[in-house]
Amino acid sequence: MTILCVRFQLPPMYEAALPGLLGLLEEFTPVVEALPPDGALADLRGAERYFGRSAVELASVIRVRALARYGVDCAIGAGPGPMLARVALRDARPGVTCAVPEDAVAGFLAGKPVAALPGIGPATARTLGEYGLDTLGLVAAAPLSTLQRLIGAKAGRELREKASGIDRGRVVPNAVARSLTTERSFGIDELDPGRHRGALLSAAEETGARLRAVEKVCRTLTLTVRYADRSATTRSRTLKEPTAHSAALTRAAYGMYEALGLQRARVRAIALRAEGLAPADQASYQLTFDPVDEKARRLEEVADRARAKFGPRAVMPGALGRGGGSPSADGLRAA
Predict the structure, then answer these.
(1) Could you tell me the pLDDT band of residue 88, with boundaries at 50, 70 and 90?
(2) Which residues pair with 135 in a beta bridge?
(3) CA–CA separation, 160 vs 9, rounded Å?
């Protein structure tokens, strides 16, 4: 067990603490890969030899230091490779490290649902489930030709390897991308797609307002949907042009959500992350003569002034148009 997958229990919109927490991991190893907004992978092969401690023992030290320095607890998964560490993280809880011994990988994976593997979305899991392949043990035992016929040649081969515990991944050191995250959590596990879309709308409008407040635009928007079983699905979309326009962000967020094809999914939280931030005055835009778009932008300016004067709740979600539709001034109100 040489790889740790750490998820810090950061409060919403507190991703600014992540660089410091990554620095904590780098006290043990230089091989740290950031997983914004709240996680990281760390390769401890050298650290185990240097400190004379196992990865699980070092994980306990990391947890104590995170609590002492930042007041942040963390959940940690440990395994022989990055993929296995990520899967182990699903069973970890704050204060507890879930470790996958190298000689027990097959047994650990056998009973896991297919969606437990990183990169396997609901659509692929649903396709395999229709043919009775709903656990990793069944997938590992299935003929390769069957898997390739169901999900494609390359995807089928990679899935069978992963389900069998073959982890070819590696930790790639990187820097935290400049980003801005907005999260919406539900009080209970939410099944209603309408509530999901409402949370997306609210998050997109807040993201746009925060970008405009710091005079930035974003090039990429990332959607993360967290489920009741603590798993998550992440999708990213490069925007047609850098923007801080709430309607454009909402359209992109809706598009990614619809592409997930969620059917009665029990959603715990939805987060949007704006990435590739750049100064707004250096961004190029396509000229538009659409009066509806111009009206929306003018209303955004009014809404931003209202937020600045009365607080962030001075504008009701949806006031600037749902998914880029015609905005309504009736949605503006003083707090």
Answers:
(1) very high
(2) 113
(3) 32
Contact between 63 and 27 (Cβ < 8 Å): no
Please provide residue 240's backbone torsions phi and psi, each rounded to the nearest 5 degrees.
-60, -35
Pairing of strands 278-279, 216-227: antiparallel
Residue 137 burial class via C-beta count within 10 angstroms: exposed 0-12, middle 13-18, buried 19 and up: middle
Q: DSSP secondary structure string, 283-305? A: --------HHHHHHHHHHHHHHH
Contact criterion met (CB below 8 Å) for 187 and 206? no
CA–CA gap between residue 315 and residue 110 (Å, rounded): 50
- Answer yes or no: are the C-beta atoms of 54 and 48 closer than 8 Å: yes
d(C-alpha 289, C-alpha 258), whole Å: 29
Which parts of 111-170 fold into alpha helices (H)?
122-129, 136-141, 144-151, 153-163
CA angle 143, 149, 155 (to 5 degrees): 85
Distance, in Å, from the CA atom of 335 to the CA atom of 328, rounded to the nearest integer, reads: 17
Q: Which two tokens stand for residue 102?
A: 């190298």
What the block records as the tokens of 298 is 């003018």
pTM as predicted: 0.59
What element of type H or E holds 76?
A: strand 74-79
Output the six-digit token pair for 324: 């880029």
Tokens of 74: 């963390």
Are the C-beta atoms of residues 133 and 101 closer than 8 Å to each other? Answer: no
Task: Please tell me the distance from the alpha carbon of residue 44 to that of residue 82, in angstroms, as a whole number.
Answer: 11
The reported pLDDT for the residue numbered 327 is 35
Query: Which secondary structure element, helix H or strand E, spans residue 7, and what is its range?
Result: strand 3-8
How many Cβ atoms are within 10 Å of 74's Cβ, its own excluded? 25
**Mean pLDDT over residues 239-259, rounded?**
92
CA distance 26 to 11: 22
The answer to whether 327 and 308 are in contact (CB under 8 A) is no
Is there a contact between 114 and 124 (Cβ–Cβ < 8 Å)?
A: yes
Find the Cα–Cα–Cα–Cα dihedral 130, 133, 136, 137, rounded to 10°.
160
Residue 141 has φ and ψ, to the nearest 5°, of -90, -10
